[in-house]
Amino acid sequence: MVSPGLLDATVQGLITGAVIAGGALGLSLIYDIAEVPNFAHGDMITIGAYLALVFNNPGGIPFLPDFGSVPL
């Protein structure tokens, strides 16, 4: 039987890894297409993360508005 703490840590690790992998994939795609490094890419990821934090159920708002902040 898997303990709940181990399962929670595994899921949180996968989510964190997916966010980092998404940022790295976006950075490599932009560099491959434009052949110029985009130094603002990390800032855009940070703004998107803060918007997701703000919209993440502050007062009964459902989870779907989080998906609107992903392209930002």
Care to give the gist of this entry?
With 72 residues, the protein is an all-alpha fold.
Shape: flat
Radius of gyration: 15 Å
Extract low-pLDDT stretches: none
Structural domain count = 1
The helix/strand class is mainly alpha
Termini, distance in Å? 41 Å
Give the beta-strand count: 0
Structure description:
With 72 residues, this protein is mainly α. It has helices at residues 4-34, 41-55, 65-69. It has one domain.
List keywords for this structure.
3 helices, 71% helix, mainly alpha, 72 residues, flat
How is the topology of this model organized?
Layout: H1 4-34, H2 41-55, H3 65-69
